[in-house]
C-alpha cells in the first residue's frame, strides 16, 4: 500500500476514479434529482434563445453586473449549440466539480504538491447545497478557491524575490542603500540619490543586505 501511495501515477489514478464516480449519475439519467435544476435549465434556455418567436414576447434579458450570474453566462452560450438535456447536465456537472477543483488547486498552491487530503472533497461533492441546486454559488465557490490559490502563488513569488534581503546575516549590520541615481526622478536632491554600485533591483537588494 505504501508503495502504491508513493508511486507517481497513484494520485492521478485516484483523481480520475473520483471524477468517474462523480460523473456517472449524469450518464444514466436525463433529469438529475436536483431541486432547482429545472428552473435553472429553463432560464438558460430562455437566455440562449432571445429571438424565439414565442419566448421573446414573454421574456426580455436584462444583463447587469450582479453576483451569482456566472453560470447564466456559460449556460446561455452552451445551450445555443447543445440540446437542453445535454447542455444542462454538463452545466450541472460543472457546478458539482467546481468546488472540488478549487480545493485541489488551493491545496496545490498552499503545500506545493498534489495532496491526498484535497481529494477528500470528492466524498462530499454531493452535498445539500448541490442537491438544492445552487449552481451559481458552487461555481463561484470553485472560482474563489482557485483564485485564492493563485493569490498565494503570486504572493509567494514576490516574497521569494525579496527573501535574500531578509533576515540579515548573524553578526552583520543591515543598512539601507538607496537605489541608483538613474532610478530617481530629476527633482530628487543629489544627496538622496547616492548610487549603490548598480543599475537595477539586484544591486539595490545587495546594497540593503551588505554588512
Notes on the protein architecture:
The protein has 211 residues and is an all-alpha fold. The protein folds into two domains: 10-163, no CATH class; 166-209, no CATH class. Helices cover 56% and strands 0% of the residues. It has helices at residues 2-6, 10-28, 37-48, 55-58, 70-78, 84-111, 128-132, 135-162, 201-209. Helix 3 (37-48) packs across helix 5, helix 5 (70-78) crosses helix 6 and helix 6 (84-111) runs parallel beside helix 8 (135-162). Residues 174-211 have low confidence and may be disordered.
What are the SSEs and their pairings?
Elements: H1 2-6, H2 10-28, H3 37-48, H4 55-58, H5 70-78, H6 84-111, H7 128-132, H8 135-162, H9 201-209
Helix pairs in contact: 2-6, 3-5, 5-6, 6-8
The amount of beta strand, in percent, is under 5%
- Distinct helical segment count: 9
Helix content: 55-70%
Average residue-wise pLDDT: 80
Low-confidence stretches: 174-211
Number of DSSP E strands: 0
Largest sheet: none
What is the CA-based Rg, rounded? 27 Å
Q: Give the N-terminus to C-terminus distance in angstroms.
A: 52 Å
Q: What structural class is derived from the secondary structure elements? A: mainly alpha
Shape designation: globular
Question: How do the SSEs run, as a string of H and E?
Answer: HHHHHHHHH
Amino acid at each position: 500500500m505504501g508503495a502504491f501511495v508513493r508511486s507517481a501515477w497513484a494520485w492521478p489514478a485516484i483523481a480520475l476514479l473520483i471524477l468517474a464516480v462523480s460523473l456517472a449519475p449524469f450518464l444514466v439519467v436525463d433529469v438529475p434529482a436536483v431541486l432547482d435544476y429545472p428552473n435553472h435549465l429553463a432560464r438558460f434556455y430562455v437566455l440562449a434563445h432571445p429571438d424565439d418567436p414565442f419566448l421573446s414576447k414573454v421574456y426580455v434579458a436584462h444583463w447587469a453586473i450582479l453576483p451569482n450570474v456566472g453560470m447564466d453566462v456559460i449556460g446561455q452560450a452552451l445551450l445555443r449549440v447543445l440540446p437542453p438535456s445535454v447542455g444542462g447536465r454538463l452545466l450541472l456537472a460543472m457546478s458539482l466539480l467546481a468546488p472540488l477543483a478549487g480545493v485541489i488547486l488551493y491545496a496545490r498552491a498552499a503545500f506545493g504538491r498534489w495532496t491526498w487530503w484535497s481529494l477528500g472533497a470528492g466524498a462530499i461533492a454531493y452535498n445539500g447545497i448541490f442537491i438544492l441546486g445552487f449552481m451559481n454559488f458552487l461555481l463561484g465557490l470553485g472560482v474563489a478557491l482557485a483564485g485564492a490559490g493563485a493569490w498565494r502563488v503570486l504572493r509567494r513569488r514576490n516574497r521569494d524575490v525579496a527573501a535574500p534581503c531578509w533576515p540579515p546575516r548573524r553578526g552583520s549590520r543591515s543598512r539601507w542603500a538607496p537605489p541608483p541615481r538613474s532610478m530617481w526622478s530629476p527633482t530628487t536632491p543629489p544627496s538622496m540619490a547616492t548610487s549603490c554600485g548598480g543599475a537595477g533591483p539586484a544591486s539595490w537588494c545587495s546594497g540593503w543586505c551588505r554588512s
